[in-house]
């Protein structure tokens, strides 16, 4: 995918998310989902945010728009948002595994794909458990949240849908104005060789951590394009490299991709224009920083000690 295609894809996806969220709000579907998803509060999610994980599975952008609206209205606090987004990682991971990892990796590397899926899933399960514990303690004394009956009615009128479309397109346009300069800056850095320079500088460190030349090649390739790097997994299997080393290499490769590309091309567009800078920074730390730290740590442990 070229940078132009990536830019158009991001903008189109985000604008779609804004439009979908606005229509969900204006037609009353968000409130209806809030009533239907209240049982999710038992997992440590604020009752007003229980619809966010459901919307997230359809459109993460739309889910963040809804959460941002509640945050701006003062109905939830930043901590409530953080807990909800962390809890949402688990169902998102399940969907990602059966839609991407298993169809791509299982035919390529067999049972190793299953081990890697479990390795990735373990992190999200741990987060879900922690969120459930902290959330239950946080909301134990929270008064029951009640929805007015009228607010739970769904209104698919021409006026509500058209107003939602106009509002969503306007918000999408404002996002594009903010995102475009940042995207161009990142592209200029990549074109100037900043990413390649960083990858080259890191190579000696990977070698000192126990990665061989083929594993380092996988990591540096995955930092730019994971699908291209997947072909090297088959080579590692044929050369008899230990499963633990392959899993560790895949984990570090994923961490490198997140560090150099994923956070700005996938995560930042969700948050930009919706949240204050402080909240955006915390979300990036939680959704990019924690997985990067986890993948680096697990990968290095697997290669050095197993």
Automatic annotation (TrEMBL):
Keywords: Membrane, Transmembrane, Transmembrane helix. The chain crosses the membrane at residues 6-33, 173-194, 214-233, 245-264, 284-303. Signal peptide: none annotated. The keyword Membrane applies. The lineage of its organism: Bacteria, Pseudomonadati, Aquificota, Aquificia, Desulfurobacteriales. PANTHER family: GATE DOMAIN-CONTAINING PROTEIN, NUCLEOSIDE TRANSPORTER_FEOB GTPASE GATE DOMAIN-CONTAINING PROTEIN. It comes from the Bacteria. This is Nucleoside recognition protein. InterPro entries: MJ0871-like.
């Amino acid at each position: 995918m070229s940078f132009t295609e990536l830019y158009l894809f991001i903008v189109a996806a985000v604008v779609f998310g804004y439009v979908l969220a606005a229509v969900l709000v204006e037609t009353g579907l968000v409130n209806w989902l809030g009533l239907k998803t209240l049982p999710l509060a038992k997992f440590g999610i604020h009752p007003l945010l229980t619809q966010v994980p459901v919307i997230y599975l359809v459109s993460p952008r739309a889910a963040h728009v809804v959460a941002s609206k509640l945050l701006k209205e003062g109905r939830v606090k930043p901590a409530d948002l953080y807990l909800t987004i962390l809890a949402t990682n688990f169902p998102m991971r399940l969907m990602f595994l059966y839609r991407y990892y298993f169809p791509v990796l299982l035919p390529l590397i067999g049972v190793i794909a299953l081990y890697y899926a479990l390795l990735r899933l373990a992190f999200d399960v741990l987060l879900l458990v922690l969120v459930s514990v902290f959330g239950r303690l946080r909301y134990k004394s929270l008064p029951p949240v009640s929805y007015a009956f009228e607010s739970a009615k769904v209104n698919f009128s021409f006026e509500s849908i058209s107003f939602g479309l106009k509002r969503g397109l306007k918000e999408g346009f404002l996002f594009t104005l903010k995102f475009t300069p940042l995207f161009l800056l990142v592209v200029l850095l990549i074109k100037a060789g900043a990413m390649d320079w960083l990858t080259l500088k890191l190579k000696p460190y990977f070698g000192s951590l126990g990665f061989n030349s083929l594993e380092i090649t996988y990591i540096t390739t995955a930092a730019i394009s994971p699908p291209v790097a997947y072909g090297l997994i088959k080579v590692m299997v044929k050369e008899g490299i230990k499963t633990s080393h392959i899993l560790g290499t895949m984990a570090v490769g994923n961490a490198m991709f997140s560090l150099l590309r994923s956070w700005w091309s996938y995560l930042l567009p969700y948050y930009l224009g919706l949240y204050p800078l402080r909240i955006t920074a915390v979300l990036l730390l939680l959704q990019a920083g924690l997985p990067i730290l986890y993948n680096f740590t697990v990968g290095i442990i697997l290669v050095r000690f197993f």
